[in-house]
């Protein structure tokens, strides 16, 4: 019998496996994907949001706890557990040395349009390099890894203690278990069930693209909630959902499919109308609301419109957009009603008030008398050539999950399990009720992966000692 069974293969699972192994436990990690696709959504990540009170290694200036908390409070609209959120924030300030010990390298501070050199530490080589480093370190520590090993169900005893997991008909027992198998974003049937039909009779979920892994089907999450009655947290329609290139692949498009020019222009729906404030806040704090906004539009599609003045001020998309020498020509190329589109752009241009444009700060360029307004970076779209990028909702991970506490234990009727723990996307809804700010998913996964691994090892080794005494 193994001491600790870790179910999942991304950042949170690997952090749990490494911590458990460091504590002296024998560890088996079950990854549903083949080896070449290992790492879940973590392989597509780039950075970790970190609290720090002064300049540190790859982080400039300071990003204190209270500012991090206020950023999180703003994007979640208060739908967050403050105790667990602050635990995550504090843990983010001390994890980098541990990560380096396991082979993770960080880039020097970045500058440019993303404005995150102060708040986020970027991984050298991205998420794939981080995942590979962790797997190499796990192997050195004696962690056994099985690929193509999707867990169908788990066994619990009458006291809600973990007993065993089932993989392709095989029963695998362990003294403790960490659940880190991701959300249900790749389960189209569950997405359809959650979102239902809209007032136009559409199934919005049918037009969602999945930015990450195809292996996050939510099988274990549904099993724990429906079959074992685990305490739940979160809304099944809430997710890290980004407006991404409508030409992106169905799965694994990752970061390169994001369209980052939204705050520098306007966004119109299929009817040629604006529907939200494009300049509400810095893009890293607001980009993850745009997928949901587009999901609420007809046909779940929208178009980000910019002119020549915006070029060079945002991370360029992988594929070029639609280009035209005039706005009517652009509307025609997009298949939009030219008259409605032109009224929208003319109203916007007329509402722009002069100011000191600066895309690196919350400037004073705004609209007046326009609904919805554009609060910052509002400049007339009047300089050809004009560009448009069609966008659709890109789901990264879902927020429905298992309720937990600061021990990372899975709870049943408010009572924490003695040996079943959870980390990563399966519990992120405790901190993220809605919204997102760049890098916080990795902060949550790293903090709770480490907590879950430590406590699973403690539970397993204590149980082993009890058996030895008996």
Structural account:
The protein folds into two domains: 268 residues, 3-Layer(bba) Sandwich (FAD/NAD(P)-binding domain); 155 residues, Succinate dehydrogenase/fumarate reductase flavoprotein, catalytic domain (Flavocytochrome C3, Chain A, domain 1, Alpha-Beta Complex). It is 29% helix and 20% strand. It has twelve helices and 20 strands. Strands 1, 2, 5, 6, 7, 8, 19 and 20 form an eight-stranded mixed β-sheet that branches. Strands 9, 11, 12, 13, 14 and 17 form a six-stranded mixed β-sheet that branches. Strands 3-4 form a two-stranded antiparallel ribbon. The two termini are 17 Å apart. Keywords: FAD, Flavoprotein, Oxidoreductase. Its cofactor is FAD. This is FAD-dependent tricarballylate dehydrogenase TcuA.
Features:
470 residues, eight-stranded mixed beta sheet, alpha/beta, FAD/NAD(P)-binding domain, FAD-dependent tricarballylate dehydrogenase TcuA, 29% helix, flavoprotein, globular, 12 helices, six-stranded mixed beta sheet, 2 domains, Flavocytochrome C3, Chain A, domain 1, oxidoreductase activity
